[in-house]
Amino acid sequence: MIGPARRFADLTTAEVPHAVTSDSIMVLPLGAIEPHGPHLPLATDLVMAESVAAKAVRRAAAGDGAGSDVWLLPSIGYTKSNEHARLPGTMWISTSTLYDTVMDIGTSVAETPAKTLVFVNGHGGNSSLLDVLLRDLRHHHDLRTFLVSSPPTPGESERGIGVHAGWSETSMMLHLAPELVDMDAAADLGPQVAHSVADCTHIGFGGPVKFGWLSTDLSPSGVVGDPTGASAAAGERLVEEYISSIVEALPDIATFNPGAL
Question: Which of 182, 204, 223, 234 has the maximal Cβ count within 10 Å?
Answer without folding.
Answer: 223
